[in-house]
Design goal:
Strand order of the largest sheet: 2-1-3-10-4-11
Distance between the termini: 57 Å
Number of domains: 2
Number of strands: 11
Structural class: alpha/beta
CATH architecture of the largest domain: 3-Layer(aba) Sandwich
Helix content: 40-55%
CATH class of the largest domain: Alpha Beta
CATH superfamily of the largest domain: Bordetella uptake gene, domain 1
Number of helices: 11
């Protein structure tokens, strides 16, 4: 046998063996946020199905902290054998690297994308006292009253906060950001009239809108929402470039063998097509999704570039 071929086989043997035998032990899905978070719940919804498909235990392990960076950094530095995965999201993967000067990982170089899991839009919600029945009127009002309107978010650097900053940049309006410790507090102050508006996820808004406690002006998604069919998209409202989807997906350490990534992708795509799984995802206020590894990797690259620009233009920096 050719010596160079023998050498190549020796080098590749460990990776090939790992791919063929995978998995050989418990697979951990790291949730980089606390128990009860959307990421934690999504992980626990797919874990039993992955166990059935892979034939090895699949557990969800919460490693919260630093806006998701502790859990992601742990996985980036884990053995690249497919036994340690993490559910990444828009905030920690695409926004944090530009927000924090000392991010301990590179979202593009240090991870191998497996598959998208879910997406969900942000909605623009105002207090009923705000004299704006649509986004056009809201923009006009903000321009007439620079610095007088405000919007709340779950904190500086959160996805809703940066969605608001993107909206301000595109519409050239001056709306004051008010950070809270969580989304519930911001919603409470919106209902009480202390806030003009919020940029938030869909689930907490639907019952409030139906009760007349808030007014939903638009969704940042590319299509209208089934549970808010009368609410237009920002594009329909004449605002281009402000489409925002909060997304969730599985990634692995960068050097994970391609065969292992392909196996995981196949199983996740199958899982995300199961009606019961899709229904349970929808109950969490997200749209179930899946993708090829290449498609998800491209999404991450695009979002890192997009939000880096928004964060730089808004002058946001966190320590």
């Amino acid at each position: 046998m050719n010596k160079s071929l023998v050498a190549l086989l020796i080098v590749c043997a460990p990776a090939l063996a790992a791919a063929q035998a995978y998995p050989t032990k418990t697979v951990r899905i790291i949730a980089p946020f606390a128990a009860g978070s959307t990421i934690d719940i999504l992980g626990r919804l797919i874990a039993p199905r992955l166990f059935e498909a892979l034939g090895q235990p699949v557990i969800v392990e919460d490693r919260p902290g630093a806006g998701g960076m502790i859990g992601l950094d742990f996985v980036a530095k884990s053995p690249p054998d497919g036994h340690t995965l993490v559910i990444g999201a828009l905030g920690p993967l695409a926004m944090n690297p530009a927000l924090y000067p000392k991010t301990p990982f590179d979202p593009v170089q240090d991870f191998a994308a497996v598959s998208l899991l879910a997406t969900g839009p942000v909605v623009i919600v105002v207090h009923p006292s705000i004299p704006a029945r649509n986004v056009k009127e809201l923009v006009e009002l903000a321009k007439k009253r620079p610095g007088q309107l405000n919007f709340g978010s779950p904190g500086v650097g959160s996805s809703p906060h940066l969605t608001g900053e993107l909206f301000k940049l595109i519409t050239k309006t001056d709306v004051v950001h008010v950070p809270y410790k969580g989304n519930a507090e911001a919603i409470t102050d919106l209902i009480g009239g202390q806030l003009s508006m919020v940029f938030t996820g869909v689930p907490p808004v639907v019952p409030l809108a139906k009760a007349g406690k808030v007014r939903v002006l638009a969704t940042t998604g590319k299509q209208r929402l089934a549970n808010l069919p009368d609410v237009p998209t920002l594009r329909e409202a004449g605002i281009e470039g402000a489409d925002v989807l909060i997304w969730y997906g599985v990634v692995a350490p960068a050097a994970t063998p391609k065969d292992v990534i392909a196996r995981l992708n196949r199983e996740i795509v199958k899982i995300m097509a199961v009606p019961d799984v899709r229904e349970k995802f929808a109950q969490q206020g997200v749209d179930p999704a899946s993708s090829t590894p290449e498609e998800f990797a491209q999404l991450i690259r695009d979002e890192v570039a997009r939000w880096g620009k928004v964060i730089r233009n808004a002058g946001i920096k966190l320590e």
